[in-house]
Design a protein that fits this description.
By secondary structure, the chain is of the alpha+beta class. It contains eight helices and ten strands.
Length: 286
């Protein structure tokens, strides 16, 4: 799933390629992709793109006073095209979900692999009309997201750290992969209860969060849209690397599997050498 660093890189890429360009057509090609119908997609055709913004993991293309807002979900992606075939694409064929064509040629496709279709596109007057954006917590890379703001968010939390970091209504933009990376950098168990963090631990976690995301954004900056997935994978230290050596201590990276996802961690770095039980309500083995 694209998370904050990849979506920020896509935002920067689209900002340089879209702003000032006129939208000729927006073609929905999968029934599931379009989540709003008023205004219709035709309302943005002929409008000039004025801005490209990001809200957590959401992309926001502003044109003609409207906002074309996209969430790529788990298996979605954006593919830039310098030109398109003359023949229009056939709806319902392959992973293509939506095509946006510029009057000057080129544009982008939104694609989604697999059978579970969660990619979402909204056309709205205000991004806050999209429920997923309206409920977002603060952006962790915002200038005003300091250590005290982070501590205030955690106050009263009784969840495990992993779940809290992934909660978009608490902090926007962090998903499964970067929560693993942040916790590895902080040398913390993903199942440590938030209420057990003392002031020093909160500081360590905050610094790991900011540095991990900033470094990922810098790695992704300037990378072409088509190569961002590979760039993300190459920069991860523990997530998706089960069975490989931890780059910090050399221990074997372990995994906890759930019904629809998994997490990775280093027992030496994060749990005092104790492996976590592989079940949803895991605790450190006694």
């Amino acid at each position: 799933m694209p998370e904050l660093p990849e979506v920020e890189a896509l935002r920067e890429f689209l900002d340089s390629h879209l702003v000032g360009q006129e939208i000729a057509r927006v073609l929905p090609l999968a029934i599931s992709v379009l989540k709003t119908y008023d205004p219709p997609l035709s309302a943005v055709e002929g409008a000039t793109v004025t801005a490209v913004d990001r809200h957590g993991k959401w992309l926001d293309i502003g044109a003609g006073g409207l906002h074309l807002v996209t969430h790529l979900a788990r298996a979605g992606w954006l593919q830039w095209k310098d030109e398109f075939p003359a023949a229009p694409p056939r709806p319902g064929k392959g992973p293509l979900a939506l095509r946006t064509i510029l009057t000057g040629g080129g544009g982008f496709d939104l694609t989604e692999a697999g059978t579970t279709k969660r990619l979402a596109v909204h056309l709205v007057h205000d991004p806050a009309e999209v429920p997923g954006i309206a409920r977002l917590g603060p952006d962790p890379l915002a200038d005003d997201f300091d250590r005290d703001a982070f501590a205030a968010l955690l106050a009263g939390e009784r969840r495990q750290i992993k779940g809290a970091l992934r909660d978009q209504s608490l902090i926007a933009g962090i998903g499964n992969a970067y929560s693993d990376e942040i916790l590895h950098a902080a040398r913390m168990s993903p199942f440590k209860p938030v209420q057990n963090l003392d002031e020093d631990a909160i500081t360590v976690l905050y610094e790991a969060l900011r540095s991990t995301l900033r470094e990922a954004v810098e790695r992704s900056r300037g990378v072409a849209a088509g190569r961002l997935k590979a760039e993300k994978k190459s920069g991860l230290r523990v997530h998706g690397r089960t069975g490989q050596a931890c780059p910090v201590c050399g221990d074997t990276i372990r995994e906890v599997s759930f019904s629809d996802s998994s997490l990775q961690y280093c027992a030496t770095c994060q749990t005092g050498g104790k492996p976590l039980a592989d079940r949803r309500l895991s605790r450190l083995l006694k």
